[in-house]
Design brief:
The complex is a heterodimer. Chain A is an alpha/beta fold. Chain A has helices spanning 8-18, 48-62, 80-86, 89-92, 104-121, 133-147, 164-174, 220-229, 317-320, 333-370, 394-403, 433-447, 451-455; strands spanning 66-67, 125-126, 155-159, 180-184, 186-187, 190-191, 205-210, 233-238, 259-263, 279-283, 296-300, 306-310, 375-377, 386-390, 406-407, 410-411, 422-425. Chain A folds into two domains: 66-73 and 347-455, Aspartate Aminotransferase, domain 1 (Alpha-Beta Complex); 80-341, Type I PLP-dependent aspartate aminotransferase-like (Major domain) (Aspartate Aminotransferase, domain 2). Chain A is globular and about 80 Å long. Residues 486-493 of chain B have low confidence and may be disordered. In chain B, α4 (106-123) packs parallel to α10 (328-366). Classes of the chains: A alpha/beta, B alpha/beta. The interface between A and B is large, with 205 and 207 residues.
C-alpha cells in the first residue's frame, strides 16, 4: 500500500499495545449509523508508473500555446535554478515556521522576500504573501478601511481600469463586512476624475492599477495627491516586473502611496492554469499593525546572535481569533520561495531588462498587427500590454488562432463592451521576432475571406 | 550551529547572473520620463552560484517532513510523494495560460473534473468547487454560502455563528469576515460539545455552527447527530471544518453526519506540500440546498468536452475568490495522490493514521504521561497535558517543544487547543513507522527525566539548532522587517 510503512508484525504488536483486536475497532466511537464500508466510487489505486503515463498523456495533449495573452498572468522565463531549489524537500515539505529555531531557512528567506518587495514598491514593510493578486487587492481594501482613522467611510474608490477579476473577487470578499467598492469612469482608457464631485462623499481609499488593466499608464502622481487631499489612503496595484522600470508606489505624488499590492506570478511562477501564484502586500511602517498575514522580523537569540521569527502575531487569527485583521493562515510560502530565488538571480538590472524587453516586444507586436487592415490600436501610449480594436468579431479569430497553436490575447468584449471588438495583447521577453511574425501571418490569413465572412 | 548571511550581504555593485535576462538592454522606448523609476530597486547583486549556495544553505536550516518526524497536531504532516510534484510540473500543465482555450486544456480539465467527483465521494455531497486557495478561504466560502442561503430565503435575522471553544482560530475570524457575530460554546469534560450550552445558544438568530469532527481535541464528536438536529431545528446550517478529515477518510461521510458544507485542506488529507506555509487548497463540498451558491468557476463535462462554469451560468454563486481558478497546480498534486491511493487506499490512510495515534497515546500513557482525554479513543491525533509536570518542575510545554528539537523531532502543536493547559497536540500521520514513534516516545521520556533532574537544562534547549531561543519581545518592539544596510533611497521623485 503506498506510503504506509507498517508490516503485519508491526500492526499486531501495535494493536496489542493499544489493547484492541483490529484497526476497525479503533473507530468504535463513531456511531454505527455513520459508518461507511469504503469509497467504491473512487476506484482502485494506480502505481506511480500508471499515473505517470496517464498524466503525461494528458499534459502532452494540452500542449503549450504560443502565448500573447497577459491580463493578469504572464509567460516569463524562469531560470532552472529557481524550481530546482524551491522544490528541495527542506522547503517543499516544511510548514509555517512556528518553531523558529527549526525553521530559520524559511524565516530568513521570507525576511529577504519582504526586503525585496519593500524595495521594489518603495514602501517600508511587506508581509509573507497572500493567495494571489486578486485577494491581495481585497485585503488591501479591508486594511485601508481599518487603517484610515481620518475617514469613517466603509467605501473604497477604484476605477473601471482595475482588473475586472480583481474587482469581482474584492466584491465577493468585501461584501461580508459591508465594505463597498465604487468605480471611477474612464476617459481614453484612463481613470477620470472630472465627474467626481463633493456629493460623491467620503472614501477610505483610492485604489489604482499601474499599468492599468488596459495597458495604460495612469497619472499616478496626480491621482495620489488628489486622493490624499481628500483624506483617502492610496493603494497601488502594480505588476512587480514593471516596477523595475516604473516609478514605485512609494514615490507617487507628494507623499507616496500608502499600500501596494499585486500579483507575484511574474516573479518566477509558472502559468500553470492560473495557480498557485501569490499576492504581495507592502505598506508604510505606521500601517503595519493593520496588515493581514504573516510577518517575519529579525531579532537576536539568547547568545545575541541574529535570528528570525514570526512577529506582530497579535494581528493574526491564531492569537486574536474573531478580532484578527484577517482569517488568513496558510499563505503561498513555496511560491514566495521561488520568487525570492528568482529576484536574487535577476537582480535590479536583470528585472529592468525583462521589463524593458516585454514593453519593446509588445510594441513590435502592436506594429505588426496594426499593419493589418481592420486592426487599430485603441490607446497610445501603452505599457507592456495593449488594446487592439477589430472591425470584425474577435471570438472566431481567437478560435482560429488557437487551432494553430496561438493564444492571441484576451477578449475584452464582455468586460468592456464600450471598446467594441477588442483584444488585450501582450508579448513578454519570451516572444521572438519570428513568433510575432507568425502571429501576424496567421491572423492575416484568418481575417481574409472566407472565415471573415463567416465570423462577420 | 551555523547561520547564513542575509543575501544582501553577498551583494556587490555590478555583479550579476546575466544569463537570465535579455542580453541587450532595451531602452524604455516611448515611455514618458515622468513615469520612470530613477533609482534601481534594492535587489541583491549576486552570481548564480552565490544564489544557489545561499538558498541551498538556507534550506538546510529547516526541519521538514523529508528530514524529520514532524508531528504537528491538526496539520497532517504526512509524506508528500515526489510523483505528485513531478507530474503536476509536466510542461504541458505548467505552460498553460489560465485564459487559454479550453480545447487546449482538456487534459487538465479532465483531471479537475475527476477530482471534483472523487471529492463528492469522500464527503458524500453532491456539489464541489475547487476554487478556494487555502483552508481559511474554504471557510470563507462555506460561511458566505450559508449567509447567501439565508438571504435568498429572505431571512436577514440570522446574525450569529456558533463556534466551540476548541475551534481553530480561523473559524471565528472567518465568521467575522462574513459579517457574523461569534457565539462561543464550551466543551464538556469528556471532550464533546456541551449540548446544554448549545441548546441555550441557538435560536432564530442562528445562521449556523462551525465544527471540526474529530475535534481539535483529538476525539470524535459522538453526539453529532443530536447537534445537527438542534441546529437544523432552529433553521441553522452546519459547517464542517475538514482539517481533521484524515481521521475518518473512507469511514464516515460529513454529509451523513448532517453537515451542509465542508471544506477540505488538500495540503493535509491529500498530501499536497505545506511549502513552508502554503500554497494550500481549501476545496468546498455542499449538500443540494447550498449548490447554487458555490463559488465559481467549476468544471463541467458535456458530451465528453470539459469546460468552466462561470458566474453567468451560476447567478446565485457567492462569486469568484481568485483571479483565475484557484491553486490549479496544487489541485493536480492532490489528484495524482488520490488516484494513487484509490478508494481502498484512502480507507487505509485513516486506519493507519488512527493506529499510529492510538499506539503513540498508549505508549505515552504507559510511560506515565498525562493524556488529556484518557477515557477516549484517539482519532488521528491526541493531547498530552504537561500541567502536572510543569507544576512539579517548572518545565513548560514550550520547553518540551524546544527540547524535542535537540532530539531531532519537530515539536507537536503547543498551547492549542487553548482549553487544555500546557498541552501538546500530537499527530503522527499514517506515513510514520513504528520505530519512528518509539524513538519519539523515548525522546519525550528522556526530556521528562531531565526535567525532574535538572530543569534548567531543559529550559536552555534547544542547543543544536542554528539559533537558540529568540527574543520575540524585541522582535515586536524594535521592528526589523527589511534589510536596511546599503539600501539606497528608493523612489523616482
Amino acid at each position: 500500500m503506498p506510503f504506509i510503512p507498517h508490516t503485519e508484525d508491526d500492526v499486531s504488536a501495535m494493536l496489542t499495545v493499544i489493547g484492541v483486536a483490529s484497526i476497525d475497532d479503533l473507530f468504535d466511537e463513531i456511531p454505527a449509523g455513520l459508518n461507511v464500508a469504503g469509497l467504491p466510487r473512487v476506484g482502485p489505486g494506480l502505481s506511480e508508473a500508471e499515473i505517470a503515463r496517464l498524466m503525461t498523456e494528458r499534459a502532452d495533449g494540452d500542449g503549450r500555446e504560443l502565448c500573447f495573452a497577459g491580463a493578469g498572468a504572464y509567460d516569463h522565463y524562469i531560470p532552472a535554478a529557481v524550481w530546482e531549489i524551491a522544490t528541495r524537500g527542506e522547503y517543499y515539505s516544511a510548514y509555517t515556521p512556528y518553531q523558529a529555531e527549526a525553521s530559520q531557512g524559511t524565516l530568513q528567506l521570507i525576511y529577504e522576500f519582504q526586503s525585496m518587495m519593500a524595495g521594489l514598491t518603495g514602501l517600508d514593510v511587506a508581509n509573507a504573501s497572500l493567495y494571489d493578486g486578486a485577494t491581495a487587492f481585497a485585503e488591501a481594501c479591508l486594511m485601508a478601511v481599518r487603517a484610515n482613522r481620518a475617514s469613517r467611510s466603509r467605501r473604497v474608490l477604484t476605477t473601471r481600469a482595475m482588473s475586472p477579476a480583481y474587482r469581482d473577487v474584492a466584491r465577493s470578499i468585501l461584501g461580508g463586512q459591508g465594505v463597498e467598492l465604487v468605480e471611477l469612469p474612464l476617459t481614453d482608457g484612463l481613470t477620470a476624475l472630472d465627474a467626481f464631485g463633493a456629493e460623491d462623499g467620503d472614501f477610505a481609499a483610492l485604489a489604482i492599477q499601474q499599468p492599468n488593466f488596459l495597458g495604460r499608464l495612469e497619472a499616478v502622481d496626480q491621482l495620489t495627491d488628489w486622493a490624499q487631499a481628500r483624506k483617502m489612503l492610496v493603494i497601488g496595484v502594480c505588476h512587480p516586473t514593471m516596477l523595475a522600470l516604473l516609478k514605485p508606489p512609494g514615490a507617487w505624488g507628494q507623499a507616496g502611496a500608502d499600500i501596494a499590492c499585486g500579483e507575484g506570478q511574474p516573479l518566477g511562477i509558472p502559468l500553470s492554469s492560473g495557480g498557485p501564484y501569490f499576492g504581495y502586500l507592502t505598506c508604510r511602517l505606521p500601517l503595519v499593525r493593520q496588515m493581514p498575514g504573516r510577518v517575519v522580523g529579525r531579532t537576536v537569540d539568547l547568545d545575541g546572535r541574529p535570528g528570525f521569527t514570526l512577529t506582530l502575531q497579535a494581528r493574526e487569527q491564531h492569537i486574536r481569533r474573531s478580532r484578527a485583521t484577517s482569517n488568513i493562515c496558510t499563505n503561498q510560502g513555496l511560491m514566495v520561495t521561488a520568487a525570492t530565488i528568482y529576484m536574487s538571480l535577476l537582480g535590479a538590472e536583470g528585472l529592468r531588462r525583462v521589463a524593458a524587453q516585454c514593453h519593446a516586444n509588445t510594441r513590435a507586436l502592436v506594429t505588426a498587427l496594426t499593419g493589418l487592415p481592420g486592426v487599430v490600436l485603441a490607446f497610445r501610449p501603452f505599457c507592456h500590454e495593449a488594446v487592439l480594436q477589430f472591425d470584425c468579431p474577435v471570438a472566431p479569430l481567437l478560435e482560429g488562432l488557437s487551432r494553430q497553436g496561438i493564444l492571441g490575447g484576451y477578449d475584452l468584449s464582455e468586460d468592456y463592451p464600450e471598446l467594441g471588438q477588442a483584444l488585450l495583447v501582450c508579448a513578454t521577453e519570451m516572444r521572438s521576432a519570428a513568433d510575432i511574425e507568425r502571429y501576424a501571418v496567421v491572423l492575416k490569413g484568418l481575417m481574409t475571406a472566407p472565415l471573415r465572412a463567416q465570423g462577420g | 550551529m551555523k547561520t547564513e548571511p542575509v543575501i544582501f550581504e553577498y551583494s556587490r555593485p555590478g555583479r550579476r547572473a546575466p544569463s537570465h535576462a535579455p542580453a541587450e538592454a532595451a531602452g524604455p522606448g516611448d515611455l514618458p520620463a515622468a513615469v520612470l523609476r530613477t533609482d534601481p530597486p534594492a535587489l541583491p547583486e549576486v552570481s548564480e552560484l552565490q544564489a544557489v549556495r545561499h538558498f541551498t544553505r538556507l534550506s538546510q536550516l529547516n526541519f521538514s517532513i523529508d528530514t524529520h518526524f514532524y508531528p504537528l497536531g491538526s496539520c497532517t504532516m504526512k509524506y508528500n510523494p515526489r510523483a505528485c510534484n513531478r507530474l503536476a510540473m509536466l510542461p504541458g500543465f505548467l505552460g498553460r495560460h489560465p485564459l487559454g482555450a479550453v480545447e487546449r486544456g482538456q487534459g487538465f480539465l479532465a483531471c479537475m473534473h475527476e477530482l471534483q467527483e472523487m471529492l463528492k465521494a469522500v464527503t458524500g455531497m453532491p456539489g464541489v468547487s475547487l476554487t478556494p486557495m487555502a483552508g481559511a478561504q474554504g471557510e470563507l466560502a462555506g460561511v458566505a454560502m450559508i449567509r447567501a442561503y439565508h438571504r435568498a430565503r429572505g431571512d436577514g435575522a440570522r446574525r450569529v455563528v456558533i463556534v466551540p471553544d476548541a475551534a481553530h482560530g480561523t473559524n471565528p475570524a472567518t465568521a467575522v469576515m462574513c459579517g457574523f457575530e461569534v457565539r462561543e460554546i464550551p466543551t464538556d469534560p469528556s471532550g464533546d460539545v456541551d449540548l446544554e450550552a448549545l441548546r441555550s445558544a441557538v435560536g432564530p438568530d442562528t445562521a449556523g455552527i462551525m465544527l471540526t469532527n474529530p475535534s481539535t481535541l483529538g476525539v470524535f464528536e459522538r453526539r453529532i447527530g443530536e447537534i445537527a438536529a438542534i441546529v437544523h431545528g432552529v433553521g441553522g446550517l452546519l459547517y464542517y471544518d475538514g482539517a481533521n478529515l484524515n481521521a475518518i477518510l473512507g469511514r464516515a461521510l460529513p454529509a451523513a453526519m448532517g453537515f451542509d458544507v465542508v471544506h477540505i485542506n488538500l495540503h493535509k488529507t491529500f498530501s499536497t506540500p505545506h511549502g513552508g506555509g502554503g500554497p494550500g487548497a481549501g476545496v468546498v463540498a455542499v449538500t443540494q440546498r447550498l449548490e447554487p451558491f458555490l463559488p465559481v468557476p467549476m468544471v463541467t463535462c458535456e458530451a465528453g468536452r470539459y469546460r468552466w462554469l462561470t458566474g453567468r451560468e451560476r447567478p446565485q454563486s457567492i462569486g469568484r475568490l481568485s483571479a483565475f481558478m484557484g491553486n490549479a497546480g496544487i489541485l493536480l498534486r492532490a489528484y495524482v495522490y488520490m488516484r494513487m491511493l484509490g478508494g481502498e487506499g484512502m480507507r487505509r490512510v485513516s486506519g493507519f493514521a488512527t493506529l499510529n495515534a492510538n499506539y503513540l497515546m498508549a505508549k505515552l500513557r504507559e510511560s506515565g504521561f498525562e493524556i488529556a482525554f484518557p477515557g477516549r479513543r484517539a482519532s488521528h491525533e491526541f493531547i498530552v497535558s504537561l500541567k502536572g509536570l510543569s507544576r512539579e518542575t517548572g518545565v513548560t510545554a514550550m520547553d518540551f517543544a524546544k527540547a524535542l528539537l535537540d532530539h531531532g523531532y519537530h515539536a507537536p502543536t503547543t498551547y492549542f487547543p487553548l482549553l487544555v493547559p500546557e498541552c501538546l497536540l500530537i499527530e503522527p500521520t499514517e506515513t510514520e513507522s513504528r520505530e519512528e514513534l518509539d524513538g519519539f516516545v523515548a525522546a519525550l521520556v528522556a526530556i521528562r527525566d531531565l526535567a525532574r533532574r535538572d530543569p534548567a537544562q531543559v529550559k536552555a534547549a534547544p542547543l543544536t539548532t542554528p539559533v537558540r531561543r529568540l527574543d520575540d519581545v524585541r522582535a515586536a518592539r524594535d521592528l526589523d522587517l527589511t534589510w536596511q544596510s546599503k539600501r539606497p533611497a528608493t523612489g523616482g521623485a
